[in-house]
């Protein structure tokens, strides 16, 4: 989907995908999303899952690399692949300059991208319906 002219990715992560996230904590630059990129990180996304605790399987991020604004590609399969480490647990690869992000949109250390993918404000209208651009604190 698109919000404010930018792609927004909504990914329902499997239990296996969620289990892979702790393996990346020491490898990513900002594991708890303490740093902002283009917008403040919502309080509910300042965690390993970068999502609401009740819906931690659902990732909502702006699909724009924090380096130069390219759109990373999904690389969900685990294991060795071109341009990825042999111990890859799945995530996203920016084709422009090689920045890599895990399945929570957290950037790996020593990559050109300086920050995690942005998490837009969002809220659940029901268990299966999300509103992008507004959360419990109001319009963004």
What would you note in describing this structure?
There is one protein chain. The protein has 140 residues and is mainly beta. It has one domain: Rieske [2Fe-2S] iron-sulphur domain (Rieske Iron-sulfur Protein), CATH 2.102.10. Helices cover 4% and strands 26% of the residues. It has 1 helix and 10 strands, in the order E-E-H-E-E-E-E-E-E-E-E. It has one helix at residues 15-20, and strands at residues 2-3, 6-12, 58-62, 73-75, 91-93, 100-102, 122-126, 129-132, 134-135, 138-139. The strands form 4 sheets. Strands 1-2-3 form a 3-stranded antiparallel sheet, with no helix packed on it. It has a 3-stranded antiparallel sheet with strand order 4-5-6, with no helix packed on it. Strands 7-8 form a two-stranded antiparallel ribbon. A hairpin with a 6-residue loop joins strand 5 and strand 6. The model has no long low-confidence stretch (mean pLDDT 92).
List the helices and strands and how they pair.
Blueprint: E1 2-3, E2 6-12, H1 15-20, E3 58-62, E4 73-75, E5 91-93, E6 100-102, E7 122-126, E8 129-132, E9 134-135, E10 138-139
Antiparallel strand pairs: 1-2, 2-3, 4-5, 5-6, 7-8, 9-10
Task: Please describe the structure with a list of short key phrases separated by commas or semicolons.
140 residues; three-stranded antiparallel sheet; Rieske Iron-sulfur Protein; mainly beta
Give a count of the beta strands, DSSP E runs of length 2 or more: 10
Tally of alpha and pi helices: 1
CATH topology: Rieske Iron-sulfur Protein
For the record, the CATH class is Mainly Beta
Helix content: under 10%
CATH superfamily: Rieske [2Fe-2S] iron-sulphur domain
Overall structural class, as computed from helix and strand content, comes to: mainly beta
């Amino acid at each position: 989907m698109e919000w404010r002219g930018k792609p927004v990715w909504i990914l329902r992560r499997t239990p296996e995908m969620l289990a892979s996230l702790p393996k990346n904590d020491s490898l990513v630059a900002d594991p708890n999303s303490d740093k902002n990129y283009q917008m403040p990180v919502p309080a509910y996304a300042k965690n390993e899952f970068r999502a609401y605790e009740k819906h931690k399987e659902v990732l909502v991020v702006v699909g724009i690399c924090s380096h130069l604004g390219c759109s990373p590609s999904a690389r969900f399969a685990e294991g060795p692949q071109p341009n990825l480490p042999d111990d890859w647990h799945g995530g996203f690869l920016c084709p422009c300059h090689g920045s890599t992000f895990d399945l929570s949109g957290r950037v790996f250390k020593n990559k050109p991208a300086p920050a995690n993918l942005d998490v837009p404000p969002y809220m659940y209208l029901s268990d299966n319906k999300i509103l992008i651009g507004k959360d419990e604190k109001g319009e963004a």
